[in-house]
Amino acid sequence: MTTELERKNMFDNEAGSMLVNELRETFGSGKTRNYDWKVSQLKQLFKLLNFHEEEIIDALRNDIDKPPLETVAYEVGMLKNSCKTALKELKHWMAPEKVKTSITTFPSSAEIVSEPFGVVLVISAWNYPFLLSLDPVIGAIAAGNAVVLKPSEIAPATSSLLAKLLGEYMDNSSIRVVEGAVDETSALLQQKWDKIFYTGNGRVARIVMAAAAKHLTPVVLELGGKSPVVVDSNINLQVAARRIIAGKWGCNNGQACISPDYIITTKDYAPKLVDALKTELEQFYGKNPLESKDLSRIVNSNHFDRLIRLLDDDKVSGKIVHGGEKDKSKLRISPTVLLDVPRDSLIMSEEIFGPLLPIITVDKLDESFDVINSAPKPLAAYIFTNNNKLKEQFVKTVSAGGLVINDTTIHLAVHTLPFGGVGESGVGAYHGKFSFDAFSHKKAVLYRSFFGDASIRYPPYTSTKTRLMKALMGGGFLAIIRALFGKS
């Protein structure tokens, strides 16, 4: 039976409604729109990251055995940079943007005013649980919203730490954390939000979008997909191999939305690429990578079993050219390279999100673009080449959330670039000012005086007025002069 205490702690639809109403009251007071409030909250967030780095490292070690360097660089470090950017640019972001007006509204002036949506929901993911939780929150705060953060229950240590630290450091009348799993998320999704920001997979994204549609709530969906790497032959192979490894296994052991998902190269070049990957992998992770402290473990047994099912598929089980070692008791799978993987295999039908890297071979590298474009649009796409014509063709032909030439994943760190997907890899984008914009409504404002009131827009509608209106709407000065003198 449910105890009285459990009932009180239960987060259901009623609790969700109360929470949203409380935050809506705070937002309605105008508190969160204030520049000083925004600055104070961003500084508090920076202080949280500064003072609790070791606790964050420990939580991520607990959840996914993430190496400390990856936590410091890709979670804490990137969040600090986001805070710094927002603090530095906030006044500029908040300032109205002056825009030109047309002759049809003369005399007038106009501007675009950024205003917060209101009360927003951020639903985060487990693989980069601090970064993917707090980076959107930074944008929501900068824009002036009240925020509810729902961290992933699959990273319980991080979820608990986020709830604790945000409770201690942030303004809880405006910023709240709700922990829990499916029931709690469902209760949150039943509420009317002013915007929902979701990071995760396409299956849950459809549930989020359906819930948002009931209230016509706008969404940002940060998803994933099969991010390809095209490898040409005229390159520095050692550097290319290292950068592919850094983007694949050096990012959470492949458990990252922008990790290289598969490689496309020519039949002739594939053996050289495989040899380079083998050499560098052994250099980085040793002869027994299952014991390496520089590789994250698989997050849980369900994901482990899913990855092994991909590996045990009859079409690819004989294609392993490096790695393949596994230890279920420790949830570890070694970096694994597969060569000449059939395109109709299970491993090529879904996002891998783990340490398996298939290589597809083609006769000519130009064919790689058809391979990529025959699949849903990925979150990222990479190419290694010194051929300028191939680079241009790649940029022009391949549709993806983001492209990187001669590296992988590092576009994530450039705050002047939007980060987001297209098609099945996502809706909307964030990072830097794009985060501010993601949580802001761009309000059109037109200013006029009582001077210059023209009778042309008022009845009775004469033939002269019709002729002049046509000329005005056409926008041509000469046509207006002709209309005034009665010439069509």
TrEMBL record:
- Set out the biological process GO terms recorded for this chain's protein: aldehyde metabolic process; response to abscisic acid; response to water deprivation
Database matches in PROSITE patterns:
ALDEHYDE_DEHYDR_GLU
Alphabetized InterPro entries for the sequence: Ald_DH/histidinol_DH, Ald_DH_C, Ald_DH_CS_GLU, Ald_DH_N, Aldehyde_DH_dom, Aldehyde_DH_NAD(P)
Q: Report if keyword Oxidoreductase is assigned.
A: yes
Query: Which family would the database say this protein is a member of?
Result: Belongs to the aldehyde dehydrogenase family.
Name of the gene: 25482459
What Pfam families has UniProt attached to this entry? Aldedh
Q: Which reaction does it catalyse?
A: an aldehyde + NAD(+) + H2O = a carboxylate + NADH + 2 H(+)
Q: What protein is this chain from?
A: Aldehyde dehydrogenase
